């Protein structure tokens, strides 16, 4: 409630001071937090390693800015009403009411519809890129999820035993999905039992892994244009699938194309030390290229099933 006798000019001064302080607080928060412009424009979106992840980030930035613009208008209108349209001392009636103003109601219906339509349009554009069909030029990878691990197969790469080269995770070893950087990759996925979900946080993408995808009418292929940098990226099951769901980790090991070709070459040979086809772990070890060729997972670790190894965290 306005204090009696406050002249309008003093009131305007107070509002200006409040606005100035708010603006100063925003400037100080932004300039002292150590965030770069890029970080600010990401609005919390993690850094991905695929062009698809970058496109989704752009959509997110656009949507966040649009929401902020609407927010500023609403906050501004609220502050304006609070500052300049408070009940005056001695007034008892309601202010003039607007609820059946047809032009105003039309405008307030059409504007949100336009906002939703624009957001919908850009969402569909990006979704069509992320969920596009393969062209046939991609490296093919088959993913099989099961309780509670993963099998990854290279259908275009026959191992010496005639079967496609593959890697299966076990309780004691995290499966490493070795992939090339800078090449398009097509993933085809299927579950042997319940619904799982293939998720590599750095791809900023996950897709449910269904049993019988065709019968369930699920689109079980998806593509990425390329992985933009070499590295080890943790992968997880993102659909609760039973007792050891949280232990269903894997690793994507992205190698530069020349190293990846070397890897696939080894997987087509017999390891002279074992007399058996090279496994993924053995091939990586034989390549000896440092941390990128570590035969063991480095982004996540095998789960120790011994009950005495578990700890309760408070
Ligand atoms: Cu799972």
Q: What does the oligomeric state look like here?
A: single chain
Structural class: alpha+beta
Helix content: 25-40%
In round numbers, the mean pLDDT is 89
Radius of gyration: 28 Å
Unreliable stretches (pLDDT < 50, length at least 5) are 1-5
CATH topology of the largest domain: Immunoglobulin-like
Q: So how many helices?
A: 6
The CATH superfamily of the largest domain is known as Cupredoxins -  blue copper proteins
Strand order of the largest sheet: 3-2-1-5-8
E-strand count = 12
- CATH architecture tag of the largest domain: Sandwich
Shape: elongated
Describe this structure in words.
With 314 residues, the protein is α+β, with helices and mostly antiparallel strands. The chain folds into two domains: 9-86 and 99-130, no CATH class; 139-302, Cupredoxins -  blue copper proteins (Immunoglobulin-like, Sandwich), CATH 2.60.40. Helix content is 36%, strand content 21%. It contains six helices and twelve strands. It has helices at 8-32, 37-42, 51-84, 102-130, 257-267, 280-287; strands spanning 139-146, 149-158, 164-168, 176-180, 185-191, 196-200, 205-209, 221-224, 231-237, 250-255, 270-271, 276-277. The strands form three sheets. Strands 3-2-1-5-8 form a five-stranded mixed sheet, with no helix packed on it. Strands 4-10-9-6-7 form a five-stranded mixed sheet. Helix 3 packs antiparallel against helix 4 and helix 5 packs across helix 6 (280-287). The protein is elongated and about 95 Å long. Mean pLDDT is 89; it is low at 1-5. The structure holds copper (II) ion. Copper (II) ion is lined by residues 145, 196, 237, 239, 241, 245, 248.
